[in-house]
Amino acid sequence: MERNKxxxxxxxxxxxxxxxxxxxxxxxxxxxxxxxxxxxxxxxxRMAGPGIHYHLPYPFESVTKTDVLTLRKIExxxxxxxxAPLTFREEQEESLMxxxxxxxxxxxxxxxxxxKDPAKFAFKVLDDYTLVKFFxxxxxxxxxxGRTIDDVLTKERDVIAxxxxxxxxxxxxxxxxxxxxxGVYLQDVSPPEQVADAFYDVINALQDKEKLINEAQKYANDxxxxxxxxxxxxxxxxxxxxxxxxxQAQGETARxxxxxxxxxxxxxxxxxxxxxxxxxxxxGSQKDVLLLSQSGQLSILNLTDIERLVGGGxx
Amino acid sequence: MMAKIVGVVIIxxxxxLVILPSAFFIVDETKQAVVLRFGEIKQVVTxxxxxxxxxxxDKVVKLEKRFQMYDVKPDVIYTADKKNVVVxxxxxxxxxxxxxxxxxxxxxxxxxxxxxxxxxxxxRDIFAKHQFDEIVSEKRExxxxxxxxxxxxxxxxxxxxxxxxRVKRTDLPDETLNAVFNRMKSERYQKAAAIRAEGSREAQKxxxxxxxxxxxxxxxxxxxxxxxxxxxxxxxYEIYASAYSQDPEFFSFWRSLQAYRKAIxxxxxxxxxxxxxxxxxxxxxx
Lengths: 315, 286
Prior knowledge:
The complex is a heterodimer.
Chain A: H1 2-24, E1 27-30, E2 34-40, E3 43-48, E4 51-54, E5 61-67, E6 72-76, E7 78-83, E8 86-90, H2 92-95, E9 96-98, E10 104-115, H3 118-124, H4 128-145, H5 149-153, H6 157-175, E11 179-190, H7 196-265, H8 267-284, E12 288-292, E13 298-300, H9 303-311
Antiparallel strand pairs in A: 1-4, 2-3, 2-5, 6-10, 7-8, 9-10, 10-11, 12-13
Chain B: H1 2-23, E1 24-27, E2 31-37, E3 40-45, E4 49-52, E5 58-64, E6 68-71, E7 75-78, E8 84-95, H2 98-105, H3 108-128, H4 132-135, H5 140-156, E9 160-171, H6 174-244, H7 248-263, E10 268-272, H8 279-282
Antiparallel strand pairs in B: 1-4, 2-3, 2-5, 6-8, 7-8, 8-9
């Protein structure tokens, strides 16, 4: 009897534990970035936010968790090989795009998207990665195909990214996919590596051109002021010469006129005096004076003779 | 009594575990289902939830309800202007009518081949009627809408809905690609050469203009300088003239003396007796 009772108790406890365990299997946790979509017999009935929740155990209810906050990222035209250190690998098959002018550009882009409507996202789209990736590739190619390579490489970059993001969103909304495109970001937009050298040569040429012009400008900035300085110097010299000529003339004539005033008063005397002074000065500075006579003979002129000669005159 | 209860429990458990799962089936939000009885379609379920069927004899085939992507394999298309282009398309599709789908296509693998056939042939048909430049431009959008429309119409009868056909890539075949690269290269090198030539042209302009300015500045300065010098000389001559003309003979005498002073330097001097210079020296009284 005792033994029967014990078995019964054990059975009852076991049944209770089993039932409790069965009901406890409905407890679930939702992470902060997620929402839980609770389905009753496979049919969506309610949504649950972050935290601990409960749903009826299998087979009555089940939950599908969807990450709605994390930005999902897809790389087009390249792949991140490792994050530390950051290295990339180009995927030419994806990155090479035909441009409107028949050239080829290498376009690398990133598209970021997040879940806009968890229910639609979870129940309408089989493979969101492929969907968004294919749409993005297709739309970016379309935008690149409508432009020239120079526009794609330079000023139209942002426009392409914006227009593409808008267009992808439209396409997704047509499908009512519950996906929101946060943005398309063009990364490396460049000429394909097969022709990169030629493109860089154009950039180098632009710099060469700039350099040539700058050097020419430098030359001009150097020679013109120098020439102006030189011109001023020539003018100053000429001006000096002009003044000099005038002043010299004025000085000489003033001297002449003063002498002339005296001369007018006593012409003969003054004349003689001037003459003698000059002779004195000229001959006084010579050591010897040689006379070449009419017969071709050289003879030293004795200064005393002159004095005699001179003395024999007026004095 | 005890045995009776145990008997009932066992019977209920058997019912619960064997009959119920066979009489009910669950369809998820992402799925749709067709109920087959000996190969014959008895029921089509497109709404998620709990559904009833005949136990044991009915078989449930579940099908995907969500959008799927079908990547048509890339192939070369010849355009209207005889150019080759590799076109890589994809289609977004879903099973719109499970009944027709099961009847006509049986399974996913067959469905994919059919989608491939239809979409690819329309892409080929429509693209081949257009010029290369139209295909590689924003006009492509219109062509794709036509492809989508036709594919949608053709695949409707198979319970497949085509939502969108798009071109993922249009590429040039390898041999054409190299030709394009070579053309791009030569275009760029030409451009670079033109830019450099432009640079030296601009530089030449600037330097020659500077040289021109320099020469003009210097020549103008020279001209003005000559004018100034001439002016100075003219004024000086006038001053001389007005002073010396008062007595040209005396001026000549006076000026000669000055000239003698300046003109005769040195250690010794040789004079010819008959020279003009000695006129006064030897004959002071004359």
